[in-house]
Amino acid sequence: MISYFTSESVASGHPDKICDQISDAIVDAALSVDPFSRVAVETLVTTNRIVMAGEVTCK
């Protein structure tokens, strides 16, 4: 059986990295208020637009 290994890498400034930073900031903010927060956040970016979707539950 032949198996293939692939991986993906993106450079700094790539939209995926920007989305991760925005989502991480939301998670960090929620956890600073309530360490037991539940956070599910998706961030999407395109030209001149940022869309966030998800939910945050905390005290």
TrEMBL record:
The keyword Transferase does not apply. It comes from Candidatus Gottesmanbacteria bacterium GW2011_GWA1_44_24b. Coiled coil: none annotated. GO terms for molecular function: ATP binding; metal ion binding; methionine adenosyltransferase activity. Residues 4-58 form the S-adenosylmethionine synthetase N-terminal domain. The keyword Metal-binding applies. Keywords: Metal-binding. It comes from the Bacteria. SUPFAM superfamilies: S-adenosylmethionine synthetase. This is S-adenosylmethionine synthase. One of its GO terms (biological process) is S-adenosylmethionine biosynthetic process.
